[in-house]
Amino acid sequence: MTSADAASGSYVLTLHCDDRPGIVAGISRVLSDHGCNVTESKTFEDAVHGTFFARFAFTVPAADGTTADAEAALRTDLDAAAAEFGMTLGLWPLSRRMPVVLMVSKWVHCLRDLLYRAQSGHLPIDVVAVVSNHEDHRSLVEWHGVPFHHVPITPDTKPAAEARLLEIVEETGAELVVLARYMQVLSEGLTERLEGRCINIHHSFLPSFKGAKPYHQAFERGVKMVGATAHYVNSDLDEGPIITQRVASVDHSYSPADLQRHGQDAEVAALTDAVKMHAEHRIILQGGRTVVLR
User: Fold this and answer.
1) What is the pLDDT of residues 176-221, one digit of tens each?
2) Which residues are catalytic?
3) Residue 110: CA count within 13 A, CB half-sphere
4) Which of 41, 91, 177, 211 could in theory staple to 198 by disulfide, Cβ–Cβ 3.0 to 4.6 A?
């Protein structure tokens, strides 16, 4: 925790556990005993699976010592409550910006949006590196003051390229990897290493069009809706737990290029929203799906 985090005394707490009476009361009692002021509270009871989810934002007074001392004491009592209720619990400083690595290939729309929103403070993230298998966007990335890493990849060099990516993640302390239109399939081993901390964006149509030129396929089928899905990456291509989705209505007058432009707008909106939700610790994974506590 940085000195700025310690000075703010603002935190976010997330938890999930088997649903039972007294969970909110137990957590509220701990927060109250430590003089915390709750500024935001979101809960969800999954009646199908019998699971309870919650997210609390709150402030902690410094008490007799520093805010860091108050945090340590609070963590001790929260851990005791977590043991009592069998909770999976997380606690993070609210003022801390999450370090993120972006990955991109040729398409630049998602990369450009994330760089701008990170730099302007519209997203609570620090882009600590951009990794690409092409050199195309080096000048854009470096103009934003972000290190650019060209990591070319072929079938023969894929293991080495993925090893280099993991090195960059570890060297930068990145807590999230975002595939901002990175057009390479990650290996199963890499997706396992990045489980729950790697987000991808892909176009999605009803029906779905896979393979080459999806927007041209959509045009030929006369689609009436285009969209995009942001999801966590797993070993199933484009089938990881869904975080956010966006759709837009279209009609027969849209050319393939028009469909692509609208689809890219949806991609930007869905990916930005997903990154924001992750960085604000609003997402809890539940097997193959997510619970997003907005």
Assistant:
1) 999 999 999 999 999 999 999 999 998 875 557 777 788 888 889 8
2) 238
3) 33
4) 177
Distance CA 81, CA 34 (A): 14
pLDDT surpasses 90 at 101: yes
pLDDT at 1 (0 to 100):
37
**CATH numbers and ranges of domains, the chain:** 3-93 (3.30.70.260), 98-292 (3.40.50.170)
Cα–Cα dist 96/69, whole Å: 18
Q: Roughly how many angstroms between the first and final C-alpha of the chain, as a whole number?
A: 25
Q: Is 136 left (phi over 0), alpha (psi -120 to 50) or beta?
A: alpha
Angle at 176 between CA 173 and CA 178, to 5 degrees: 130
CB proximity list for 195: less than 8 A, separation 6 or greater? 232, 234
This prediction has a pTM of: 0.92
The answer to whether 57 and 14 have CB atoms below 8 angstroms apart is no
81 Cα distance to chain centroid: 27
CA dist 55 → 12, 69, 71, 116 (Å): 7, 23, 17, 28
**Contact predicate 35/61, CB 8 Å:** yes
